[in-house]
Amino acid sequence: MNPHSLHIAQQSPAAALATLGSSAQGLTASEAARRLIEFGVNQVTAPPRDPLWLLLLREFSHFFALILWLAAGLAFVAAYFDPGQGMFELGLAVLGVIVVNGAFSFWQSYRAEQALAALRDLLPQLVEVRRDGATLTVPAAALVPGDLVLLGEGAKVPADCRLVEASGVRVDMATLTGESRPRAREAAPDAEADPLAARNLLLAGTLLVAGECSALVFATGMHTEFGRIAHLTQTAGEVESPLQREIRRVSRIVALLALGLGVAFFVIGHFIGLPFWANFMFAIGIIVANVPEGLLPTVTLSLALATQRMAKRHALVRHLPAVETLGSATVILTDKTGTLTQNRMAVREVFVAAAHHLAAKRWPRVDDRHLRAVARVCHNLKFPAGEALGDPMEIALWTFAGEMPDTGERVGEIPFDTERRRMSVLTRHADGTGDLWCKGAPESVLPLCTGWMLGDALQPLDEAARQMFERAQNDMADRGLRVLACAWKPLASGATGAEQGLHLCGLVGLEDPPRPDVHEAVARCHGAGLRVIMVTGDHPHTALAIARELDLIRTPQPVVLTGDAVRAMSPASLQLALAAPEILFARVSAEQKMLIVQACQARGEIVAVTGDGVNDAPALKCADIGIAMGLSGTDVAREAADIVLLDDHFATIVNAIEEGRAVFDNIRKFLTYILSSNIPEIVPYLAFVLLRIPLPLTVIQILAVDLGTDMLPALALGAEPPHAGVMRRPPRPRGERLLSWPLLARAYLFLGPLEALGAMAAFFFVLHAAGWQYGDVLAPRDPLYLQATTACLMAIVLAQMVNVFVCRHPQLPLWHFSLLENRLLLAGLALELGLLLLIIYTPLGNVLFGTAPLAAVVWGYALPFAALLGGLEEARKACMSHWCK
Predict the structure, then answer these.
(1) Catalytic, out of 147, 172, 190, 335
(2) What letter would DSSP give residue 807?
């Protein structure tokens, strides 16, 4: 809180001007220029950003990249001391992997930031200010404390101001408090300690929906309430996503395993008498075979494809892991105003002629014409281009009333104020008679009424009638509607418009209607095992009514906590309160919303937070996944978020959850796929050392599999669309690992050995067909040796082509999925086969990869082993499905 705001609010307008060295004529131009130097420009300071070169460098210096740098360095060292063994080409290939992966990750993040920058448009660019007694138009950034600004309906408040003169001012505080109902503001002193509630303060980033005023600027830039909340956002730490943690863990496990095996087999090779450089090449081969070089590029590309799909569905993903993180969410903390609702008032229900009626239904209009006349006449709306502009509540009433017969000329107004809590308008006809139309809070209007309208008949407002209207008011209020009373009385020619002896026309219940697709989206969240908790700045009754309407609350006695209650609770108490089956939060401030996020996280939840206001930004930053509204959201909220909804539809969040769950599943699919090929890449090296046979697979051929033929099918697995049941299961446990024991067992102990069997069988088939005998030594460029290693490579690729189909789901059979469901898979297989043929049957491929053309009979020999892998894996799935029933 800015302590100066409390002092200014308690002073009279004249004293406030004197305190800031200003006057009714405003500052002088020279004094404004001096203060601009002293206080700085009126802008919220953006958080410091790392330079682009540093961001790019980070993409090449994470742990997995360092392991690849080490492998490339070892390859270049080997090439220097023992040239001609393909080590130089290996080093170049690994460098290519590092560069492509790092550049792509950097470019994707840069593009998202650039797209987000285009959304920045919150504070006004120009504002009217009085200086040297004249009214000038200056940039909002040039405002200084002591300036006197002039604001009218529809204006965005450019700085924290204290009202000096005000006429019918009402301000929408939704961007700061989440409160959907505009608040009246006046120039009189106010002892309120909270600047958000002080009736004579206008705060930066809020919106004038009615009235006009002159206001004294007392805080600018980061000293405003807006800037204070922005600072909370900027100081909140970055949260590592579950996917980032898992990829880091998988990378370290696999990389350390590769290094450990490389060192271990280097030692083994030394003890069995291998020459140093042959042993060194063998160790590098073990490392390269165990490091899935395609893992990070494939993860990055898979996430990038998901972000592109989300962009087509109106969601901008700022950080690649955000999609998957949202898929792992267990709780969504959602704002009400503008997120679940349309941030637009509408008449939902009326109580007229002693009966409740829904506004969407038609009823005999003869019963409510006086009520509709009040709604149509009693307002301060403007119509600059034929469209109503002003207070959303008055717009809602005016729209509900529709066209009315002539009610006469407006000749006077008794304006609304916070004490009276009502407004009246006087109209006159040509014959001198007239009418007084009054609307306001029922407790303010009912005491002024002596009768009530039943159609055209006036009934006495006796005690029974008063109780009837009070019951109707309470019933509507308990359902979260904002209730207004409408009254009227005719005026004789020359009669004054005193607010006495009124005829009560009826009650109007207004609401901020839910978005039309939210109910279905909430139902999908329930089906997916997600808790959706409303956290709003609105009134508890209003919040509870909306929550019940959307089925967020389905029990008769939910827990409803206000921000004051949250402030008084210890972290442990709040954490225990969140264990309630159904809970919602109302009248919540920025700090309290962040406390709720942290309490959920302390319970082990993965928290997604939606919001659009400045008040939402700290919670968006603190949460596991922050989702901001792109259309109605503030700049600060969008900066803090991981995902920006370009259409502000809550349903888009559910689509993103579905995509995120599919991303995690898909990463597991291609992790199984690429790890499966590690075994047939390791086994040839083990056989080379232990059996003293020619090396069945060279290091460059391993890279041909990992970075060439396997890459596109693996990417296709990463692009698998969500299957039908993905939103009918609960969120995965927070501690569930990406690299699980069942996945490792399936890849390393089942699929991998089957591929190794086919690869070694093809290698020996070529050797024995040419008369090779055990113990014969083959030169590296011997045509027979080249054909044998090529056969081993070809058998691995064929097995992987079958493996990609069985990896589409760990339990469901391959025929459960249509090929046309993932066209990228067919393209990947076609390119994989094309690359294999280029490697085997072109001179360039033969030179680069040390291969030789194969006869058709070798293909025929390898194909049954690939088919065997598919058949046994489908049999395993069938057995597992049977046992699990």
Answers:
(1) 335
(2) T
